[in-house]
Amino acid sequence: MIKNLTRGLAALALALTPLTAAGPAQAAPAVEPMLLADAVAALPVAEESRAGYTRTSFKHWNAGLDPADGCNTRAEVLLAEADVAPDVAPGCRLSGGAWSSYYDDQEVTDPARLDIDHMVPLAESWDSGAAAWTAARREAYANDQGAEPSLVAVTARSNRAKADRDPTQWMPPAPGAHCRYLTEWVATKLRWGLTVDPAERDALVGRAENCPAALVHFTPSP
Questions:
Q1: 22-79 tens-digit pLDDT
Q2: Angle between helices 198-208 and 178-191 (to 10 degrees)
Q3: Do residues 198 and 20 lie in contact, with contact meaning Cβ atoms separated by under 8 Å?
Q4: Which residues form the signal peptide (predicted)?
Q5: Which residue, 53, 132, 163, 192, is the most exposed by fewest CB within 10 angstroms?
């Protein structure tokens, strides 16, 4: 199943007024949708380096879009992506609800069994350009609710199987998810101006051949 359509509407609204860690930022114009093959060709190619990376370089699961509601970014993504809304207790404790994990085509009714995956993992983003960013920009990246593909609720098992791998090394176990996953991976890299290494570029080019009509939609990050 696809994600709840309300997530798409929420992401569209957020894209019009994107946020940084410091608050509202000037919206960038959306880029015309591109065929996946053309979007892959638009990605800059560079060698990767993980030198100096630590996960703590990316402050994540911050106070979210409305600090007053007690929900951090993780909880807000769960609320936005729910097919059936969970109960919300004081302190934004979630229980019940239902979600579709598109990586492995699983239905989940316990929010504790879900992870919020960074479409392009934090370590991969570091390798691909985020090492040169400010701490504020890395925080904005790690909590990006301004674009639907950036953060996705999936089963903990699939997220941990993916870890920090790129599409050279890992693809969702559900075959029907592959084209969507590729468009969202490429959209996230283009949104944030991240590079691909030669092996990753070659893998994306090859996999894109199986998705000839797939379109990539993205808005450049603030």
A1: 344 455 778 899 999 999 999 999 999 999 999 999 999 988 677 777 899 999 999 9
A2: 140
A3: no
A4: 1-27
A5: 132
73-94 pLDDT, tens per residue?
999 999 999 999 999 999 899 9
Write out 27-86 in H/E/C secondary structure: CCCCCCCEEHHHHHHHCCECCCCCCCCCHHHCCCCCCCCCHHHCCCHHHHHHHHHCCECC
Element (H, E) at 20: strand 19-20
Residue 174 · residue 100 · CB < 8 Å:
no
Alpha-carbon distance of 103 to 10, in angstroms, equals 21
Give the pLDDT mean for 7-20: 36
Question: Do the Cβ atoms of 125 and 141 come closer than 8 Å?
Answer: yes
Rounded Cα gap, residues 48 and 36, in angstroms: 22
CA distance 81 to 65: 15
Q: What is the pLDDT of residues 165-217, one digit of tens each?
A: 999 999 999 999 999 999 999 999 999 999 999 999 999 999 999 999 999 99
> What phi and psi, each to the nearest 5 degrees, are found at residue 217?
-115, 130
150, 14 in Cβ contact below 8 A?
no
For residue 84, the tally of other CB atoms under 10 A from its CB is 10
